[in-house]
Amino acid sequence: ATPMSIIAGVGRAAEYGVLVRDADALQRASELDTLVFDKTGTLTEGKPQVVAVKTYGDINEAQALRLAAALEQGSSHPLAHAIIEKAGETQLPQISAFRTLRGLGVSGEAEDHALLLGNQALLNEQQIATTEIDPELEAQASKGATPVLLAVDGKVAALFAIRDPLRADSVAALERLHREGYRLVMLTGDNPITARAIAKEAGIDEVIAGVLPDGKAEAIKKLQAEGRKVAMVGDGINDAPALAQAEVGIAMGGGSDVAIETAAITLMRHSLVGVADALAISKATLRNMK
Ligand code: ADP
Ligand code: MG
User: Fold this and answer.
1) For the chain, what is the radius of gyration of the CA atoms?
2) Potential cystine with 118: which of 122, 174, 250, 281 (Cβ 3.0-4.6 Å)?
3) Going by CA atoms, what residue is nearest to atom 18 of ligand 1?
4) According to its UniProt record, where is this protein located (predicted)?
5) Could you give the residue numbers annotated as active site?
6) For 281, phi and psi rounded to 5 degrees?
7) What does the alpha-carbon distance between residue 186 and residue 157 come to, in Å, rounded to a whole number?
8) pLDDT in tens, 124-134
9) Pairing of strands 34-38, 49-55
Protein backbone atom coordinates (compact mmCIF):
# COMPACT_ATOMS: atom_id res chain seq x y z
CA ALA A 1 0.00 0.00 0.00
CA THR A 2 1.87 3.02 -1.22
CA PRO A 3 0.56 6.58 -0.99
CA MET A 4 2.05 7.07 -4.47
CA SER A 5 -0.49 4.80 -6.13
CA ILE A 6 -3.32 6.61 -4.33
CA ILE A 7 -2.04 9.91 -5.67
CA ALA A 8 -1.93 8.34 -9.11
CA GLY A 9 -5.53 7.19 -8.59
CA VAL A 10 -6.64 10.72 -7.68
CA GLY A 11 -4.91 11.97 -10.83
CA ARG A 12 -6.51 9.29 -12.96
CA ALA A 13 -9.94 10.20 -11.54
CA ALA A 14 -9.38 13.83 -12.53
CA GLU A 15 -8.85 12.73 -16.13
CA TYR A 16 -12.37 11.31 -15.97
CA GLY A 17 -13.81 14.55 -14.60
CA VAL A 18 -13.94 13.24 -11.04
CA LEU A 19 -12.42 15.48 -8.35
CA VAL A 20 -11.43 13.52 -5.24
CA ARG A 21 -10.78 15.58 -2.11
CA ASP A 22 -8.07 13.37 -0.58
CA ALA A 23 -6.52 9.89 -0.51
CA ASP A 24 -8.79 8.83 2.31
CA ALA A 25 -11.90 9.59 0.24
CA LEU A 26 -10.65 7.31 -2.55
CA GLN A 27 -10.07 4.53 -0.02
CA ARG A 28 -13.59 4.90 1.45
CA ALA A 29 -15.07 4.99 -2.07
CA SER A 30 -13.55 1.60 -2.79
CA GLU A 31 -15.41 0.01 0.15
CA LEU A 32 -19.02 1.04 -0.59
CA ASP A 33 -21.97 -1.30 -1.06
CA THR A 34 -24.94 1.11 -1.16
CA LEU A 35 -25.48 4.19 -3.30
CA VAL A 36 -28.18 6.70 -2.35
CA PHE A 37 -29.39 9.18 -4.95
CA ASP A 38 -31.32 12.40 -4.51
CA LYS A 39 -34.11 12.42 -7.12
CA THR A 40 -34.67 15.96 -8.36
CA GLY A 41 -31.70 17.25 -10.33
CA THR A 42 -29.61 14.15 -9.66
CA LEU A 43 -31.51 11.26 -11.25
CA THR A 44 -33.76 13.65 -13.16
CA GLU A 45 -33.06 16.66 -15.32
CA GLY A 46 -34.26 19.00 -12.58
CA LYS A 47 -36.32 20.96 -15.12
CA PRO A 48 -39.87 19.93 -14.28
CA GLN A 49 -42.80 20.86 -16.53
CA VAL A 50 -46.53 21.08 -15.90
CA VAL A 51 -48.13 18.28 -17.97
CA ALA A 52 -51.75 18.52 -16.75
CA VAL A 53 -54.00 20.92 -14.83
CA LYS A 54 -57.29 19.88 -13.17
CA THR A 55 -59.57 22.35 -11.44
CA TYR A 56 -62.24 21.82 -8.79
CA GLY A 57 -65.14 24.12 -7.88
CA ASP A 58 -65.79 27.33 -9.80
CA ILE A 59 -62.21 28.29 -10.62
CA ASN A 60 -60.89 27.89 -14.17
CA GLU A 61 -57.44 26.75 -15.31
CA ALA A 62 -56.15 30.24 -16.07
CA GLN A 63 -57.29 31.58 -12.70
CA ALA A 64 -55.74 28.67 -10.84
CA LEU A 65 -52.43 29.06 -12.68
CA ARG A 66 -52.41 32.80 -12.03
CA LEU A 67 -52.80 32.34 -8.25
CA ALA A 68 -50.32 29.47 -8.10
CA ALA A 69 -47.71 31.35 -10.15
CA ALA A 70 -48.11 34.44 -7.98
CA LEU A 71 -47.32 32.35 -4.91
CA GLU A 72 -44.40 30.55 -6.55
CA GLN A 73 -42.69 33.84 -7.37
CA GLY A 74 -41.49 33.75 -3.78
CA SER A 75 -40.00 30.26 -4.13
CA SER A 76 -36.79 29.02 -5.76
CA HIS A 77 -37.96 25.38 -5.87
CA PRO A 78 -37.73 23.70 -9.32
CA LEU A 79 -41.51 23.04 -9.12
CA ALA A 80 -42.05 26.80 -8.73
CA HIS A 81 -40.33 27.45 -12.05
CA ALA A 82 -42.57 24.92 -13.77
CA ILE A 83 -45.75 26.62 -12.55
CA ILE A 84 -44.54 30.15 -13.36
CA GLU A 85 -43.55 29.03 -16.85
CA LYS A 86 -46.92 27.38 -17.47
CA ALA A 87 -48.79 30.53 -16.33
CA GLY A 88 -46.95 32.56 -18.98
CA GLU A 89 -46.46 36.29 -18.92
CA THR A 90 -49.71 37.31 -17.29
CA GLN A 91 -50.12 40.04 -14.70
CA LEU A 92 -49.83 38.22 -11.39
CA PRO A 93 -51.67 39.34 -8.24
CA GLN A 94 -49.79 40.74 -5.29
CA ILE A 95 -49.07 38.20 -2.54
CA SER A 96 -49.01 39.07 1.16
CA ALA A 97 -48.08 36.95 4.21
CA PHE A 98 -45.94 34.70 1.99
CA ARG A 99 -44.36 31.67 3.66
CA THR A 100 -42.17 28.81 2.53
CA LEU A 101 -42.93 25.50 4.25
CA ARG A 102 -39.79 23.50 3.60
CA GLY A 103 -40.42 20.14 1.97
CA LEU A 104 -44.15 20.88 1.78
CA GLY A 105 -44.90 23.96 -0.30
CA VAL A 106 -45.78 27.64 0.01
CA SER A 107 -48.62 29.76 1.40
CA GLY A 108 -49.85 33.35 1.23
CA GLU A 109 -52.79 35.64 0.60
CA ALA A 110 -53.98 37.32 -2.58
CA GLU A 111 -57.12 39.32 -3.44
CA ASP A 112 -58.60 38.47 -0.02
CA HIS A 113 -58.14 34.74 -0.47
CA ALA A 114 -56.00 32.40 1.64
CA LEU A 115 -53.78 30.32 -0.62
CA LEU A 116 -51.88 27.11 -0.01
CA LEU A 117 -49.80 25.33 -2.66
CA GLY A 118 -47.88 22.12 -2.21
CA ASN A 119 -48.17 18.40 -1.57
CA GLN A 120 -50.92 16.36 0.03
CA ALA A 121 -49.10 16.34 3.38
CA LEU A 122 -49.25 20.16 3.44
CA LEU A 123 -53.01 20.24 2.80
CA ASN A 124 -53.70 17.46 5.26
CA GLU A 125 -51.62 19.25 7.88
CA GLN A 126 -54.00 22.20 7.45
CA GLN A 127 -57.03 19.91 7.79
CA ILE A 128 -57.98 20.33 4.13
CA ALA A 129 -59.61 17.13 2.87
CA THR A 130 -58.18 15.69 -0.34
CA THR A 131 -60.34 12.54 -0.59
CA GLU A 132 -62.32 13.95 -3.56
CA ILE A 133 -59.18 14.17 -5.64
CA ASP A 134 -57.43 11.01 -4.41
CA PRO A 135 -58.04 9.03 -7.64
CA GLU A 136 -56.55 11.84 -9.76
CA LEU A 137 -53.62 12.21 -7.35
CA GLU A 138 -52.84 8.52 -7.63
CA ALA A 139 -53.30 8.39 -11.39
CA GLN A 140 -50.82 11.22 -11.94
CA ALA A 141 -48.33 9.98 -9.37
CA SER A 142 -48.29 6.44 -10.73
CA LYS A 143 -47.28 7.93 -14.10
CA GLY A 144 -44.29 9.49 -12.35
CA ALA A 145 -45.70 13.02 -12.17
CA THR A 146 -45.60 15.07 -8.95
CA PRO A 147 -49.06 16.33 -8.01
CA VAL A 148 -49.00 19.88 -6.64
CA LEU A 149 -52.25 21.02 -5.05
CA LEU A 150 -53.69 24.52 -4.82
CA ALA A 151 -56.13 25.23 -1.99
CA VAL A 152 -58.13 28.47 -1.95
CA ASP A 153 -59.82 29.42 1.33
CA GLY A 154 -59.40 25.93 2.73
CA LYS A 155 -60.72 24.00 -0.30
CA VAL A 156 -58.87 22.13 -3.02
CA ALA A 157 -59.09 24.28 -6.16
CA ALA A 158 -56.57 22.74 -8.55
CA LEU A 159 -54.10 19.96 -9.16
CA PHE A 160 -50.99 20.55 -11.27
CA ALA A 161 -49.26 17.39 -12.49
CA ILE A 162 -45.57 18.14 -12.92
CA ARG A 163 -43.09 15.86 -14.65
CA ASP A 164 -39.34 15.90 -14.37
CA PRO A 165 -37.90 13.26 -16.71
CA LEU A 166 -34.85 11.14 -15.94
CA ARG A 167 -31.59 12.41 -17.39
CA ALA A 168 -30.88 10.73 -20.71
CA ASP A 169 -27.81 8.88 -19.43
CA SER A 170 -29.08 8.02 -15.93
CA VAL A 171 -30.50 4.59 -16.79
CA ALA A 172 -27.32 3.28 -18.45
CA ALA A 173 -25.11 4.57 -15.61
CA LEU A 174 -27.38 2.98 -13.00
CA GLU A 175 -27.39 -0.32 -14.91
CA ARG A 176 -23.61 -0.31 -14.85
CA LEU A 177 -23.58 0.32 -11.09
CA HIS A 178 -26.12 -2.45 -10.60
CA ARG A 179 -23.95 -4.91 -12.52
CA GLU A 180 -21.08 -3.97 -10.25
CA GLY A 181 -23.19 -5.13 -7.32
CA TYR A 182 -24.22 -1.90 -5.60
CA ARG A 183 -27.60 -1.56 -3.94
CA LEU A 184 -29.27 1.55 -5.43
CA VAL A 185 -31.54 3.72 -3.28
CA MET A 186 -33.58 6.85 -4.08
CA LEU A 187 -33.98 9.48 -1.35
CA THR A 188 -36.58 12.16 -1.98
CA GLY A 189 -39.04 14.60 -0.47
CA ASP A 190 -41.49 13.73 -3.23
CA ASN A 191 -44.46 11.46 -2.54
CA PRO A 192 -43.94 7.67 -2.47
CA ILE A 193 -46.12 6.82 -5.50
CA THR A 194 -44.34 9.27 -7.81
CA ALA A 195 -40.96 8.25 -6.41
CA ARG A 196 -41.65 4.54 -6.97
CA ALA A 197 -42.78 5.14 -10.56
CA ILE A 198 -39.54 6.98 -11.36
CA ALA A 199 -37.42 4.45 -9.45
CA LYS A 200 -38.91 1.70 -11.60
CA GLU A 201 -38.00 3.56 -14.80
CA ALA A 202 -34.49 4.10 -13.45
CA GLY A 203 -33.92 0.55 -12.18
CA ILE A 204 -33.53 1.65 -8.55
CA ASP A 205 -33.92 -1.06 -5.87
CA GLU A 206 -35.25 0.85 -2.91
CA VAL A 207 -37.18 4.09 -2.37
CA ILE A 208 -37.13 6.33 0.69
CA ALA A 209 -39.77 9.01 -0.06
CA GLY A 210 -41.67 11.78 1.68
CA VAL A 211 -38.53 12.75 3.57
CA LEU A 212 -38.45 16.32 4.87
CA PRO A 213 -35.21 18.22 4.10
CA ASP A 214 -33.88 17.70 7.63
CA GLY A 215 -34.59 13.97 7.45
CA LYS A 216 -32.18 13.15 4.63
CA ALA A 217 -29.08 12.78 6.86
CA GLU A 218 -31.16 10.72 9.31
CA ALA A 219 -32.11 8.34 6.49
CA ILE A 220 -28.42 7.82 5.67
CA LYS A 221 -27.70 7.10 9.34
CA LYS A 222 -30.40 4.43 9.37
CA LEU A 223 -28.82 2.65 6.40
CA GLN A 224 -25.43 2.83 8.12
CA ALA A 225 -26.95 1.35 11.28
CA GLU A 226 -27.93 -1.66 9.13
CA GLY A 227 -24.23 -2.10 8.43
CA ARG A 228 -24.22 -0.63 4.95
CA LYS A 229 -21.34 1.41 3.56
CA VAL A 230 -23.14 4.30 1.97
CA ALA A 231 -22.39 6.95 -0.63
CA MET A 232 -24.85 9.83 -1.07
CA VAL A 233 -25.11 11.46 -4.49
CA GLY A 234 -26.81 14.86 -4.61
CA ASP A 235 -26.77 18.36 -6.01
CA GLY A 236 -28.82 20.59 -3.73
CA ILE A 237 -28.27 22.71 -0.63
CA ASN A 238 -30.70 20.42 1.19
CA ASP A 239 -28.54 17.39 0.31
CA ALA A 240 -25.49 18.76 2.17
CA PRO A 241 -26.17 17.17 5.60
CA ALA A 242 -26.71 13.77 3.92
CA LEU A 243 -23.54 14.21 1.83
CA ALA A 244 -21.65 14.88 5.06
CA GLN A 245 -23.21 11.92 6.89
CA ALA A 246 -22.43 9.33 4.20
CA GLU A 247 -19.08 7.45 4.06
CA VAL A 248 -18.61 9.30 0.79
CA GLY A 249 -20.56 12.36 -0.38
CA ILE A 250 -20.64 12.80 -4.16
CA ALA A 251 -21.74 16.20 -5.54
CA MET A 252 -23.03 16.51 -9.08
CA GLY A 253 -21.23 19.08 -11.24
CA GLY A 254 -23.06 22.38 -11.54
CA GLY A 255 -24.97 21.74 -8.31
CA SER A 256 -25.09 24.08 -5.34
CA ASP A 257 -21.82 25.37 -3.85
CA VAL A 258 -22.80 24.03 -0.44
CA ALA A 259 -23.13 20.51 -1.86
CA ILE A 260 -19.72 20.77 -3.56
CA GLU A 261 -18.03 22.12 -0.41
CA THR A 262 -19.44 19.27 1.66
CA ALA A 263 -18.72 16.41 -0.72
CA ALA A 264 -15.59 14.23 -0.70
CA ILE A 265 -15.98 13.71 -4.44
CA THR A 266 -17.23 16.26 -6.98
CA LEU A 267 -18.17 15.37 -10.54
CA MET A 268 -17.16 17.93 -13.12
CA ARG A 269 -20.06 16.94 -15.37
CA HIS A 270 -23.68 16.76 -14.26
CA SER A 271 -24.01 13.06 -15.07
CA LEU A 272 -24.25 9.79 -13.16
CA VAL A 273 -21.69 8.28 -15.53
CA GLY A 274 -19.16 10.10 -13.34
CA VAL A 275 -20.34 8.14 -10.28
CA ALA A 276 -19.66 4.83 -12.04
CA ASP A 277 -16.26 6.10 -13.21
CA ALA A 278 -15.32 7.36 -9.75
CA LEU A 279 -16.15 4.08 -8.04
CA ALA A 280 -14.42 1.97 -10.71
CA ILE A 281 -11.24 4.03 -10.36
CA SER A 282 -11.32 3.84 -6.57
CA LYS A 283 -11.59 0.05 -6.70
CA ALA A 284 -8.89 -0.34 -9.34
CA THR A 285 -6.53 1.91 -7.36
CA LEU A 286 -6.99 0.11 -4.07
CA ARG A 287 -6.79 -3.31 -5.76
CA ASN A 288 -3.38 -2.38 -7.19
CA MET A 289 -2.15 -1.60 -3.72
CA LYS A 290 -2.83 -5.04 -2.27
P1 ADP B 1 -36.96 17.07 -3.28
O2 ADP B 1 -35.83 18.04 -3.36
O3 ADP B 1 -36.52 15.69 -2.88
O4 ADP B 1 -37.83 17.06 -4.50
P5 ADP B 1 -38.32 18.89 -1.40
O6 ADP B 1 -38.09 18.66 0.04
O7 ADP B 1 -37.68 20.05 -2.05
O8 ADP B 1 -37.94 17.50 -2.11
O9 ADP B 1 -39.88 18.96 -1.68
C10 ADP B 1 -40.74 17.93 -1.29
C11 ADP B 1 -42.14 18.14 -1.83
O12 ADP B 1 -42.72 19.31 -1.25
C13 ADP B 1 -42.22 18.37 -3.33
O14 ADP B 1 -42.25 17.17 -4.05
C15 ADP B 1 -43.52 19.15 -3.44
O16 ADP B 1 -44.62 18.26 -3.43
C17 ADP B 1 -43.55 19.98 -2.18
N18 ADP B 1 -43.01 21.34 -2.42
C19 ADP B 1 -41.88 21.86 -1.89
N20 ADP B 1 -41.70 23.13 -2.30
C21 ADP B 1 -42.72 23.41 -3.14
C22 ADP B 1 -43.10 24.57 -3.90
N23 ADP B 1 -42.39 25.71 -3.90
N24 ADP B 1 -44.22 24.48 -4.64
C25 ADP B 1 -44.95 23.35 -4.67
N26 ADP B 1 -44.65 22.24 -3.98
C27 ADP B 1 -43.56 22.26 -3.21
MG1 MG C 1 -31.79 17.72 -6.05
Assistant:
1) 21
2) 122
3) 105
4) Cell membrane
5) 38
6) -65, -40
7) 31
8) 999 999 999 99
9) unpaired
